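lol forgot to send this yesterday, sorry. struct tokens for the thing we talked abt
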């Protein structure tokens, strides 16, 4: 009797089939991990963009005096801009008060949404605070809830929303921040 070495065709087909199933499962797990990583990094990126812009706006608006909120229509979507001034030492006395005790005000500052960027404009220069922003809204909170149409409040509500696709053709990620600022001056 002669010994045969090797595998039969059926045995090879079974091994190839099992190996194919293992490889398909491995690639599926890797694909899900890759997609999850991209989704997470996109969400973090959006949160950083919105937080950076919101922190800067809140910090400066807290110090501001009289503000003007303007509604603008761009691309069929309403958004708002806000204009204000910060106290500034105009003299050399190391404070922002003049000789009579009144606040000395600096250049006008405007925050607005241009395209998908939050911009800060002042004295001819423009700084981009955040990208991928879909909406930016400013509104006053009424002092008296019984008269919500009265626009004399020193509380400004800011709403900022950014969005981006996690992967090309993938799901759209969003980050929304809301804040209330009490004007001090």
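and heres what i got for the seq, position by position
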């Amino acid at each position: 009797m002669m010994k045969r070495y090797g595998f039969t065709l059926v045995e090879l087909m079974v091994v190839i089939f099992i190996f194919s199933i293992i490889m398909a499962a491995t690639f599926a797990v890797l694909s899900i991990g890759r997609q999850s990583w991209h989704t997470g990094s996109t969400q973090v990126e959006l949160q950083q963009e919105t937080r950076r812009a919101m922190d800067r706006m809140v910090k400066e608006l807290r110090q501001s005096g009289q503000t003007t909120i303007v509604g603008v229509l761009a691309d069929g979507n309403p958004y708002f801009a806000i204009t204000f001034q910060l106290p500034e030492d105009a003299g050399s006395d190391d404070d922002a008060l003049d000789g009579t005790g009144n606040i000395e005000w600096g250049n006008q500052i405007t925050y607005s949404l241009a395209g998908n960027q939050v911009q800060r404009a002042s004295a001819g220069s423009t700084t981009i605070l955040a990208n991928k922003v879909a909406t930016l809204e400013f509104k006053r909170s009424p002092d008296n809830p019984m008269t919500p149409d009265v626009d004399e409040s020193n509380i400004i509500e800011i709403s900022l929303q950014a969005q981006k696709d996690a992967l090309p053709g993938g799901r759209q990620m969003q980050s929304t921040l809301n804040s209330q600022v009490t004007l001090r001056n």
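Confidence is low (pLDDT under 50) at residues 147-151. anyway ping me if u want another try
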